[in-house]
């Protein structure tokens, strides 16, 4: 784990130490004694906000409470920088609590204030913190974009502190994607900036993060060299939060070398500091996971289990996906070694599912795409600059020609012809630009289709297949007896049925996409289409003793794309079975109007609340829940059903309430009399 640097507040950068807190506390006490603890004294408000920041790694709730106190005073004060610090502090607080949306919301408010103040340093700091937040949330493309914007403003402000911080955070971003060469290039830039700063603590922070990267690469010699230097500095300067982190990194280095006893010594040193009033949840997750691995290496499985579970609980609490993945993987290894295969398989499924959700491979591609975009932007800037030089040169020639126009009128004719050629070229370039814009839209549409397909495959196929793979490995290796194998095979059968159902949906959807997403309506009998799907889903309904009645009028002929509406019916009936308990009832009905046929699929299932009804039809989401018998969703979701219905000039909606069942309605165009005669 590498520590992301937060950047600076409007009040400046300060390393967390007791002397700073004491100094600020005395300053605040002095203001109170003089009766200056009010909204008119912005220096008092600034001191409260600065003290709040100092409590981040000691008591994050004190950070919130002091910031809240300052915010109340700022209601009656004209102090924009104070408000900037308020929202910045809230962003840090909600980030540490794992409330990512609230963190993003408050950091954007801070950024807006910085833009209004036209303060390059504050803008760079807010963009850096916002980028860090997106990085914690796994959105690496947005993270990199905000880091690079922040870097531009940091250069404009000529502030080496924030330049060092942002370059180091970009290095960590690339390191997290295993782009170590690029990460080390950024660290070279950081090292040069740190020489100008001449701040031993800042240099030590960089060295400790470098040590973490060298540990990941496997270069433990370089890692140990850097971490020992940083530990010396932090011990001398008494910077305990970074010292705790550095001890943990040193323990991780020994783990990499297979020296578990030495690893435990340094990890215990780190734990002592964390237990002594430090409040850094992300650091604790990495520490507990490393302690678990170290104890597992020494054969202390009970302690290994306890620490891994502690780390997993904290990771869940702050919604750290990377932390949950690491701890779940460790628990899988522990229980497999203890031959507790049921719990091992459980944590293996958690690890596989979260790994897919994080989608690191997809984010790596996004980074590469963004690097390509940066290269293109640079080339475009160079082309614009060169064109401006040519235009300036041409303007000089025209000016010169005007001066000698009376005596050299003939010289103007070639210039006139040249200008006509330029206009023609401009028109051609404009046409080409329009063509490129159209192609860009087509590519965006293609990328959206690709992303949706990969999201479905990663979300709903890889998890069950990964679980099945783990089961088969245990059977082949002889880890499972016949009786245990038979019990897990039943679950595997359910997972395979789910995969088959999802594949059928993907193939149906894929045929539509191969047709360019076009709808090809034909005369189709909806009753027969429903009957075919009931035959297909009969086994699924029978497993839950669910009765399905098809009361759709047999003469319900519509002018629709048969493949698309077939996919809609299959998903809606499947969902009805999924959310209807055993011995339930599902009814299919139809109702004809002048121009449309309305289909109703009604169940006696668990129903849904208003919040769920708002989510299920939204585009670009894979909102799935487990059914009454823990059946998994198809992954394609109702958003695809909505897309198919709307392509067929219809509408789809749902009526539902918790524990009162659901009724899904959709309309499609009725076969007109002219088409009936033609057919």
From TrEMBL:
Keywords annotated in UniProt: Coiled coil, Kinase, Membrane, Phosphoprotein, TPR repeat, Transferase, Transmembrane, Transmembrane helix, Two-component regulatory system
Pfam families: HATPase_c, TPR_12
Transmembrane segments: 397-417
InterPro entries per record: HATPase_C_sf, HATPase_dom, His_kinase_dom, HisK_dim/P_dom, HisK_dim/P_sf, Sensor_HK_Regulatory, Sig_transdc_His_kin-like_C, TPR-like_helical_dom_sf
Catalytic activity: ATP + protein L-histidine = ADP + protein N-phospho-L-histidine
Example of a GO MF term: phosphorelay sensor kinase activity
Coiled coil: 419-446
Listed SUPFAM superfamilies: ATPase domain of HSP90 chaperone/DNA topoisomerase II/histidine kinase (SSF55874), HCP-like (SSF81901), Homodimeric domain of signal transducing histidine kinase (SSF47384), TPR-like (SSF48452)
TPR repeat ranges, renumbered to this chain: 84-117
EC number of this enzyme: 2.7.13.3
Domain called Histidine kinase: residue spans: 456-672
The organism's taxonomic lineage, starting at the top: Bacteria, Pseudomonadati, Bacteroidota, Flavobacteriia, Flavobacteriales
Organism whose genome encodes this protein: Croceivirga radicis
Protein name: histidine kinase
């Amino acid at each position: 784990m590498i520590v992301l640097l937060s950047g600076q507040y409007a009040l400046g950068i300060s390393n967390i130490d007791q002397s700073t807190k004491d100094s600020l506390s005395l300053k605040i006490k002095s203001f109170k004694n003089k009766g200056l603890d009010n909204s008119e004294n912005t220096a008092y408000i600034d001191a409260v906000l600065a003290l709040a920041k100092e409590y981040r790694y000691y008591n994050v709730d004190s950070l919130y409470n002091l910031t809240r106190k300052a915010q109340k005073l700022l209601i009656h004060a004209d102090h924009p920088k104070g408000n900037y610090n308020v929202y910045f502090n809230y962003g840090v607080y909600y980030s540490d609590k794992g409330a990512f949306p609230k963190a993003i919301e408050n950091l954007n408010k801070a950024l807006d204030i910085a833009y209004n103040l036209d303060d390059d340093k504050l803008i760079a700091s807010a963009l850096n913190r916002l980028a860090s937040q997106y990085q914690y949330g796994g959105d690496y493309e947005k993270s990199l974009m905000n880091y690079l914007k922040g870097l531009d403003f940091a250069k404009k402000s000529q502030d080496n502190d924030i330049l060092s911080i942002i370059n180091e955070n970009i290095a960590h971003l690339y390191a997290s994607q295993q782009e170590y060469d690029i990460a080390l290039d950024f660290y070279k830039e950081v090292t040069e900036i740190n020489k100008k700063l001449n701040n031993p603590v800042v240099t030590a922070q960089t060295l400790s993060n470098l040590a973490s990267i060298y540990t990941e690469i496997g270069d433990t010699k370089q890692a140990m060299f850097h971490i020992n230097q940083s530990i010396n500095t932090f011990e001398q300067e008494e910077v305990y939060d970074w010292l705790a982190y550095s001890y943990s990194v040193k323990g991780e280095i020994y783990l990499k070398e297979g020296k578990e006893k030495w690893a435990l010594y340094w990890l215990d040193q780190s734990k002592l500091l964390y237990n002594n009033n430090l409040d850094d949840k992300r650091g604790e997750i990495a520490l507990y996971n490393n302690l678990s691995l170290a104890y597992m290496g020494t054969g202390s499985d009970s302690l290994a289990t306890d620490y891994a579970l502690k780390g997993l609980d904290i990771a869940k609490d702050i919604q750290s996906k990377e932390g949950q993945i690491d701890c779940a993987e460790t628990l899988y290894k522990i229980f497999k070694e203890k031959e507790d295969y049921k719990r091992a398989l459980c944590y293996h499924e958690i690890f596989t599912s979260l790994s897919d959700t994080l989608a690191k491979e997809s984010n790596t591609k996004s980074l590469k795409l963004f690097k390509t975009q940066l290269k293109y932007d640079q080339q475009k800037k160079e082309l614009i600059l060169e064109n401006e030089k040519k235009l300036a040169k041409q303007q000089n020639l025209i000016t010169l020609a005007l001066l000698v126009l009376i005596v050299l009128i003939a010289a103007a004719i070639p210039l006139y012809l040249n200008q006509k050629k330029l206009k023609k070229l401009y028109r051609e370039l404009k046409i080409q630009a329009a063509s490129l814009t159209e192609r860009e839209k087509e590519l965006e549409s293609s990328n959206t289709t690709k992303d949706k397909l990969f999201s479905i495959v990663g979300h709903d196929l890889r998890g069950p297949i990964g679980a099945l793979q783990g089961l088969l490995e245990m059977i082949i290796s002889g880890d499972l007896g016949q009786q245990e194998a038979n019990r897990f095979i039943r679950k595997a059968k359910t997972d395979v049925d789910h995969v088959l159902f999802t594949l059928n949906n993907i193939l149906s959807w894929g045929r539509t996409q191969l047709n360019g997403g076009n709808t090809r309506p034909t005369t189709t009998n909806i009753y027969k289409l429903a009957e075919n799907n009931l035959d297909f889903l009969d086994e699924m309904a029978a497993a839950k003793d669910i009765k399905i009645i098809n009361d759709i009028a047999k003469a319900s002929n519509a002018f629709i794309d048969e493949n698309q509406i077939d996919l809609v019916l299959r998903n809606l009936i499947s969902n009805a079975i999924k959310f209807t308990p055993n011995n339930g009832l599902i009814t299919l009905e139809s109702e004809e109007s002048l121009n449309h046929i309305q289909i109703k699929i009604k169940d006696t299932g668990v129903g849904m609340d208003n919040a769920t009804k708002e989510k299920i039809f939204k585009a670009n989401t894979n909102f799935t829940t487990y059914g009454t018998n823990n059946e998994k969703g198809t992954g394609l979701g109702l958003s695809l059903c909505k897309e198919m219905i709307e392509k067929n000039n219809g509408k789809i909606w749902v009526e539902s309430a918790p524990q009162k069942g659901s009724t899904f309605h959709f309309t499609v165009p009725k076969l007109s009399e002219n088409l009936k005669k033609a057919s």
